Automatic annotation (TrEMBL), chain A:
InterPro entries: DsrEFH-like, Sulphur_relay_TusB/DsrH. It comes from the Bacteria. One of its GO terms (cellular component) is sulfurtransferase complex. GO terms for biological process: tRNA wobble position uridine thiolation. The lineage of its organism: Bacteria, Pseudomonadati, Pseudomonadota, Gammaproteobacteria, Pseudomonadales. It comes from Marinobacter subterrani. This is Sulfur relay protein TusB/DsrH.
From TrEMBL, chain B:
The keyword rRNA processing does not apply. Keywords: Transferase. It comes from Marinobacter subterrani. InterPro entries: DsrEFH-like (IPR027396), Sulphur_relay_DsrE/F-like (IPR003787), Sulphur_relay_TusC/DsrF (IPR017462). This is Sulfur relay (Sulfurtransferase) complex TusC component, DsrF/TusC family. One of its GO terms (molecular function) is transferase activity. Signal peptide: none annotated. Pfam families: DsrE (PF02635). Transmembrane segments: none annotated. Belongs to the DsrF/TusC family.
Protein backbone atom coordinates (compact mmCIF):
# COMPACT_ATOMS: atom_id res chain seq x y z
CA UNK A 1 0.00 0.00 0.00
CA UNK A 2 1.73 3.15 -1.22
CA UNK A 3 0.84 6.55 0.17
CA UNK A 4 2.97 8.36 -2.40
CA UNK A 5 3.58 7.75 -6.04
CA UNK A 6 7.16 9.05 -6.20
CA UNK A 7 9.30 10.17 -3.28
CA UNK A 8 11.73 12.81 -4.57
CA UNK A 9 14.77 13.10 -2.28
CA UNK A 10 16.41 16.44 -3.06
CA UNK A 11 19.80 17.42 -1.62
CA UNK A 12 20.55 20.24 -4.07
CA UNK A 13 20.29 23.92 -3.14
CA UNK A 14 18.34 26.54 -5.12
CA UNK A 15 20.32 27.42 -8.25
CA UNK A 16 21.51 23.89 -8.92
CA UNK A 17 20.18 22.77 -12.31
CA UNK A 18 19.24 19.34 -10.99
CA UNK A 19 17.01 20.97 -8.34
CA UNK A 20 15.08 22.79 -11.08
CA UNK A 21 14.70 19.50 -12.93
CA UNK A 22 13.37 17.82 -9.79
CA UNK A 23 10.82 20.54 -8.99
CA UNK A 24 9.58 20.53 -12.60
CA UNK A 25 8.78 16.81 -12.31
CA UNK A 26 6.76 17.03 -9.08
CA UNK A 27 3.14 16.08 -9.42
CA UNK A 28 0.15 15.61 -7.18
CA UNK A 29 0.46 12.39 -5.22
CA UNK A 30 4.25 12.69 -5.02
CA UNK A 31 6.23 13.70 -1.94
CA UNK A 32 9.32 15.89 -1.76
CA UNK A 33 11.89 15.20 0.96
CA UNK A 34 14.47 17.97 1.40
CA UNK A 35 17.80 16.86 2.87
CA UNK A 36 21.32 18.33 3.15
CA UNK A 37 21.51 21.59 1.15
CA UNK A 38 18.07 20.87 -0.26
CA UNK A 39 16.59 22.28 2.96
CA UNK A 40 17.80 25.72 1.80
CA UNK A 41 14.69 25.72 -0.36
CA UNK A 42 12.76 26.45 2.86
CA UNK A 43 14.38 29.89 2.93
CA UNK A 44 14.12 30.52 -0.81
CA UNK A 45 11.33 31.23 -3.24
CA UNK A 46 10.12 28.86 -5.88
CA UNK A 47 9.15 25.75 -3.93
CA UNK A 48 5.97 24.52 -5.62
CA UNK A 49 2.97 23.60 -3.50
CA UNK A 50 1.88 20.76 -5.74
CA UNK A 51 2.69 17.94 -3.33
CA UNK A 52 3.56 17.22 0.30
CA UNK A 53 6.94 18.50 1.47
CA UNK A 54 9.13 16.95 4.17
CA UNK A 55 12.45 18.25 5.48
CA UNK A 56 15.11 16.51 7.51
CA UNK A 57 15.10 18.32 10.84
CA UNK A 58 18.81 17.83 11.58
CA UNK A 59 19.75 19.56 8.31
CA UNK A 60 17.17 22.31 8.88
CA UNK A 61 18.46 23.00 12.39
CA UNK A 62 22.11 22.91 11.30
CA UNK A 63 21.46 25.69 8.80
CA UNK A 64 19.70 27.90 11.33
CA UNK A 65 16.31 27.40 9.71
CA UNK A 66 14.67 25.76 12.71
CA UNK A 67 12.37 28.70 13.35
CA UNK A 68 11.15 29.29 9.78
CA UNK A 69 7.48 28.51 9.46
CA UNK A 70 6.32 26.74 6.35
CA UNK A 71 4.01 24.01 5.15
CA UNK A 72 6.69 21.35 5.31
CA UNK A 73 6.69 18.48 7.77
CA UNK A 74 9.93 18.07 9.72
CA UNK A 75 11.16 14.51 9.95
CA UNK A 76 13.98 12.68 11.71
CA UNK A 77 16.49 10.32 10.08
CA UNK A 78 14.46 7.30 11.15
CA UNK A 79 11.37 8.69 9.38
CA UNK A 80 13.23 8.72 6.07
CA UNK A 81 13.08 4.94 5.98
CA UNK A 82 9.34 4.94 6.63
CA UNK A 83 8.81 7.57 3.93
CA UNK A 84 10.73 5.59 1.32
CA UNK A 85 8.66 2.50 2.15
CA UNK A 86 5.47 4.47 1.62
CA UNK A 87 6.47 5.44 -1.92
CA UNK A 88 5.89 3.39 -5.05
CA UNK A 89 9.24 4.61 -6.37
CA UNK A 90 12.09 6.79 -5.20
CA UNK A 91 14.22 9.29 -7.09
CA UNK A 92 17.43 10.44 -5.37
CA UNK A 93 18.33 13.73 -7.06
CA UNK B 1 13.63 -3.81 -7.99
CA UNK B 2 14.93 -1.97 -11.03
CA UNK B 3 17.26 0.99 -10.81
CA UNK B 4 18.03 3.74 -13.26
CA UNK B 5 21.35 5.49 -12.73
CA UNK B 6 21.43 9.00 -14.22
CA UNK B 7 24.61 10.77 -15.26
CA UNK B 8 24.35 14.51 -15.91
CA UNK B 9 27.99 15.43 -15.34
CA UNK B 10 30.62 15.70 -18.08
CA UNK B 11 32.90 12.72 -18.57
CA UNK B 12 36.12 14.33 -17.31
CA UNK B 13 36.76 17.03 -14.72
CA UNK B 14 35.15 15.30 -11.74
CA UNK B 15 34.78 11.76 -10.45
CA UNK B 16 31.06 11.83 -9.77
CA UNK B 17 30.13 10.33 -13.11
CA UNK B 18 32.51 7.42 -12.65
CA UNK B 19 31.05 6.88 -9.20
CA UNK B 20 27.64 6.62 -10.85
CA UNK B 21 29.04 4.05 -13.27
CA UNK B 22 30.46 2.07 -10.33
CA UNK B 23 27.01 2.11 -8.72
CA UNK B 24 25.43 0.76 -11.90
CA UNK B 25 28.07 -1.94 -12.40
CA UNK B 26 27.85 -3.00 -8.75
CA UNK B 27 24.08 -3.39 -8.99
CA UNK B 28 24.38 -5.40 -12.19
CA UNK B 29 27.17 -7.58 -10.76
CA UNK B 30 24.77 -8.60 -7.97
CA UNK B 31 21.98 -9.36 -10.46
CA UNK B 32 19.99 -6.22 -9.66
CA UNK B 33 18.42 -4.86 -12.87
CA UNK B 34 20.13 -1.58 -13.72
CA UNK B 35 20.21 0.81 -16.65
CA UNK B 36 22.02 4.07 -17.39
CA UNK B 37 20.53 7.35 -18.59
CA UNK B 38 22.77 10.17 -19.78
CA UNK B 39 21.31 13.69 -19.72
CA UNK B 40 22.64 17.25 -19.97
CA UNK B 41 26.42 17.44 -20.21
CA UNK B 42 26.48 13.75 -19.29
CA UNK B 43 25.84 12.82 -22.92
CA UNK B 44 29.44 13.79 -23.68
CA UNK B 45 30.39 10.42 -22.20
CA UNK B 46 28.98 8.81 -25.30
CA UNK B 47 31.23 10.26 -27.99
CA UNK B 48 33.32 7.88 -30.07
CA UNK B 49 37.12 7.88 -30.25
CA UNK B 50 38.02 9.39 -26.88
CA UNK B 51 41.81 9.50 -26.56
CA UNK B 52 42.88 9.87 -22.93
CA UNK B 53 46.51 8.78 -23.34
CA UNK B 54 47.86 12.20 -22.37
CA UNK B 55 45.40 12.49 -19.50
CA UNK B 56 46.70 9.31 -17.87
CA UNK B 57 43.18 8.00 -17.32
CA UNK B 58 41.21 5.20 -18.84
CA UNK B 59 38.60 6.66 -21.18
CA UNK B 60 34.98 6.50 -20.08
CA UNK B 61 34.29 5.11 -23.55
CA UNK B 62 36.32 2.02 -22.53
CA UNK B 63 34.61 1.92 -19.12
CA UNK B 64 31.24 2.00 -20.82
CA UNK B 65 32.14 -0.75 -23.25
CA UNK B 66 32.15 -3.08 -20.23
CA UNK B 67 28.47 -2.32 -19.51
CA UNK B 68 27.04 -5.29 -21.43
CA UNK B 69 29.57 -7.64 -19.80
CA UNK B 70 28.38 -6.55 -16.34
CA UNK B 71 24.77 -6.99 -17.42
CA UNK B 72 23.65 -3.36 -17.68
CA UNK B 73 20.28 -3.67 -19.36
CA UNK B 74 20.34 -0.49 -21.43
CA UNK B 75 22.20 2.74 -22.07
CA UNK B 76 19.79 5.61 -22.71
CA UNK B 77 20.60 9.16 -23.79
CA UNK B 78 18.43 12.26 -23.91
CA UNK B 79 18.01 13.10 -27.59
CA UNK B 80 17.78 16.87 -27.05
CA UNK B 81 20.99 16.88 -25.00
CA UNK B 82 22.77 14.89 -27.71
CA UNK B 83 21.75 17.50 -30.26
CA UNK B 84 22.97 20.28 -27.97
CA UNK B 85 26.39 18.63 -27.70
CA UNK B 86 26.65 17.82 -31.41
CA UNK B 87 26.17 14.07 -31.09
CA UNK B 88 24.45 12.07 -33.81
CA UNK B 89 24.33 8.40 -34.83
CA UNK B 90 27.78 8.62 -36.41
CA UNK B 91 29.51 10.18 -33.40
CA UNK B 92 27.75 8.16 -30.68
CA UNK B 93 29.23 4.91 -29.37
CA UNK B 94 27.32 1.74 -30.27
CA UNK B 95 24.43 0.48 -28.19
CA UNK B 96 22.89 3.78 -27.12
CA UNK B 97 19.11 4.20 -27.18
CA UNK B 98 17.93 7.79 -27.66
CA UNK B 99 14.90 8.84 -25.60
CA UNK B 100 12.62 11.87 -25.83
CA UNK B 101 10.43 11.57 -22.74
CA UNK B 102 12.55 11.27 -19.62
CA UNK B 103 9.61 11.45 -17.21
CA UNK B 104 8.03 8.45 -18.95
CA UNK B 105 11.31 6.53 -18.66
CA UNK B 106 11.66 7.37 -14.95
CA UNK B 107 8.21 5.90 -14.45
CA UNK B 108 9.49 2.48 -15.46
CA UNK B 109 12.05 2.25 -12.64
CA UNK B 110 11.51 1.66 -8.91
CA UNK B 111 14.54 3.70 -8.01
CA UNK B 112 16.40 6.44 -9.82
CA UNK B 113 19.66 7.83 -8.51
CA UNK B 114 22.33 10.34 -9.45
CA UNK B 115 25.87 10.40 -8.15
CA UNK B 116 27.56 13.59 -7.01
Amino acid sequence: MSSFDTLHILNKSPGHPRAAQCLALLSEGDALLLIENGVLWLSAEGLPSVCRVFALSADVAARGLGNTAGNETRVAFSDMVALSLQARKVISW
Amino acid sequence: MSTLIMIDQPSYGSWSGREALDMAFSLAAFDQPAALLFTGAGVTWLRREQDTADLGQKSVEKNLSAAPVFGIEAIFADRAACQRYGLDERSLIAGVTLVDAISALLNQYDHTAFAG
